[in-house]
Amino acid sequence: MANMNTYIFLFGLFLLTLLLAWIFLRASGKGQDSKDTQRKREKSSYSPGCLFSALLSLIILCIILFVAVSHSYHAFTKEEPVAIVRCEKVKSDTVDFKLIFIPVLKNQKKGQETFLIRGQQWTVGGHIIKWSSILNLFGLHSMYKLTRIEGKYLSVFDENTNQATVYSLTENESDRLWEILYKYGHRLPFIQSVYGNTVFTYPSFSGEFRVFVTTSGFTINFFRETNRNKREKTTIKQNRPER
């Protein structure tokens, strides 16, 4: 569906460009109105000015198509950062690791929260509104709301026998607006679907995870701690005055 709408959009731009090129050529052909014979008119149609106009129109067409393809590619592959997750080891028999959650809104960090997690993996999830592809083409990105962080065990037996660690990321879990969107959102124009989405992975203590929202839901990328960051931390420790 997304690809079909993209092709239709690009084909429309192609036709529009051809129409503009045709109008431009017709206007340039009337630059010097000659009332000579048909032979002179045919000869004038192959003048350097017309060839230059055709070449210019072709260049404009290529530029428009390049911009259109780049825009559509960016619209369908855009990743908006929504959170940063860091994991730390803990010495405990009841907790497996500590998770630091930093929400991100418009590329700005908004505080941080700490959660104690039981399980081999951590998960983050929430609500997603997937807009129609046409709206994505015009720059409207997925609407979302993060709601929970949980610990996850690998086996169903462990999930059923061990105590779960589930934390809410929102003060109002019974959100009436999202309840209505889940029930009737698919009937509204320009909304393709409304659904819950959860991503999970193993903890890592050598970097940080960044959670993104795409046109199809949440995704996780891992960024390993660079040697430069390590050197900076070491330098800060060494430069501290001894007491």
Notes on the protein architecture:
Helices cover 41% and strands 30% of the residues. The longest helix has 30 residues, at 48-77. The chain folds into two domains: 2-76; 78-239, no CATH class. It starts with a helix and ends with a helix. The chain has helices spanning 2-29, 38-45, 48-77, 133-137, 156-161, 176-184, 227-239, and strands at residues 80-88, 97-105, 108-109, 113-117, 121-131, 143-152, 166-168, 191-201, 207-213, 218-224. The radius of gyration is 29 Å and the shape is elongated. The protein is built from seven helices and ten strands. Helix 1 packs antiparallel against helix 3 (48-77). The strands form two sheets. Strands 1, 2, 3, 4, 9 and 10 form a six-stranded antiparallel β-sheet that branches. A four-stranded antiparallel β-sheet has the order 7-6-5-8. With 243 residues, it is of the alpha+beta class.
The overall pLDDT, averaged over residues, is: 77
Number of helices: 7
Class by SSE composition: alpha+beta
Strand content: 25-35%
Instruction: Report the helical percentage.
Output: 40-55%
Low-confidence stretches: 32-37, 230-243
Give the beta-strand count.
Answer: 10
The helix-strand sequence is HHHEEEEEHEHEHEEEH
Indicate how many domains the architecture comprises: 2
Radius of gyration: 29 Å
Give the CA-CA distance, first to last residue. 66 Å
Shape: elongated
Largest sheet: 6 strands, antiparallel
